Amino acid sequence: MALVTITPPAGIVKNGTEYANKTRWVDGNLVRFENGFLKPIGGWEKLFNTALTGTPIGMYAYKDNSGNKVLGIGTREKIYVLYQDVLYDLTSSITSPAYNDDSGLDPLGYGAGLYGKENWGSIRSGTGTAGPSGLSFLTKSFSFDNFGENLLICSASDGRVFQWSPSSPSTVSTLSNAPTNNTAVVVTNERHVVCIGAGGDSRKIQWSERENSTSWTAAANNTAGDLQIATGGQAHYAVKYRGDIIIFTDVGINRLYYVGAPFTYGIAEAGTNCKAISRRCIVQAGEFLTWMGENSFFIYDGAVREIKSDVHDFVFDNLHTLYRLTTCGGHNQKHNEVWWFFPSGTSQTPNKYVIWNYLDNVWSVGELSRNCWIDEGAFDFSLAADNNNQILQHDFGTLFNSPDLGTTQPFCETGPLEIGQGDRLAQVNQILPDEKTTTLPAVTLSFKGRNTPLGAETDFGSFSFATDGYTDARFTARQIQMKVTGDTDQAFQLGNVRADIKQRGKR
After folding, report:
1. Cys-Cys link to 413, which of 27, 86, 136, 479 (CB 3.0-4.6 A)?
2. What's the pTM value of the predicted model, to 2 decimals?
3. Domains, the chain
4. Helical H runs in 217-371?
5. Is the dihedral of CA 296, 301, 305, 308 positive or negative?
6. What pairing do the DSSP bridges indicate for beta strands 56-63 and 193-196?
7. Could you tell me if 349 and 326 are in contact, meaning their C-beta atoms sit under 8 angstroms apart?
8. What SS3 state is found at 138?
9. Radius of gyration of the chain (CA)
10. How far apart are alpha carbons 248 and 388 in whole angstroms?
């Protein structure tokens, strides 16, 4: 018996042609690769049963001084806080002026539409004050941070900084004296509140006095101040990284760093030609930042580098570019993964995803509708928002009881697996799986056989793994493709699959 390993190395490859990716995994859904093994992703469940008003597009979680969990949620229409298991709609407490939401705006932006239509740089014509395409990158995003146990909130479409306190959980107020018409807010390690695009100046960075979120006027006896970003472009977003504030512009990134008195902060260019495709796709993953650009992925760990991706074509050839601003990402530290969700085909919201396991440097792909994501921390599981306006706990149990899963099953499929030199027919007699699970069979195998790369396909299987370790599977082909389909009701771990293969003639 000639036992041949037919399991490809870990990771999905979707660049180039199918035959160019022979002996590799080329497609999948709801699976991940971890430590070299193929596994299903975990399931998800609703964090609470209430469907929110408007699509959730931003979240932030922390614990107050008493150890109570706080979850801030921003949707295209509302601002919510979940506190002590009570969901508070804070929007109604913003009365003067009324909260400016994004419910009537479309995320296409300036210059959207067909070539030659209307005037370059003009808002697209249509109904509403902003037209159907809205303000693009400057809308549809939230920034959150906590100043002590108080939550700071800024919606780029509204521009004000709001403050929420556990002592008054049903209301939110405008942060006194803070600039308005901002694009984002962040709190530094030195405990200054920083506004990005402060006061409507797209290049201005302004910060409060240290330990005083309501003192914003610079004076000789305080540490409040402001400066302009160091390079061209508009400031859109900011995240904390290793004591610095990394500011994302429509050109690249700048680094805001603490220098002390009298200037408090300095700023320097940290990367060019590396703009993020959206605000929501910027992910902080421990020792580095990473994001999705217009035609590649980037990482920053003190310097900006492009990430070579095995699924580049899958993402950027299928990206619905008019709705690229809805792209979002998140960190799953439990599995050393970064997830990106993006709109493909005709979808106006994210409907597909890629997973980058940065520890193993392997990629996975699939289909899920998620609009924002935050990592575990205050909560025991990663949280994500779906298209039904629900907040979900991820990697919670198995897939079986996950909302809106339907009949979808986890699977992974190979490219062509040639036997020998690919010039002879091969007869497969038995399959010997390497699988770890609670109850067999947790997966089934099926095959497609061809005699030439463009020849007719023949389906063989499906084959379930037998309890004695041997699975009969008799078929003949010159090249085969293997598909692994998993049970949704239990986890599994697939290692090397070997097959008893006998070489036949060339015809």
Report:
1. 27
2. 0.91
3. 3-43+410-503 (2.60.120), 276-396 (no CATH)
4. 312-316
5. negative
6. unpaired
7. yes
8. helix
9. 26
10. 30
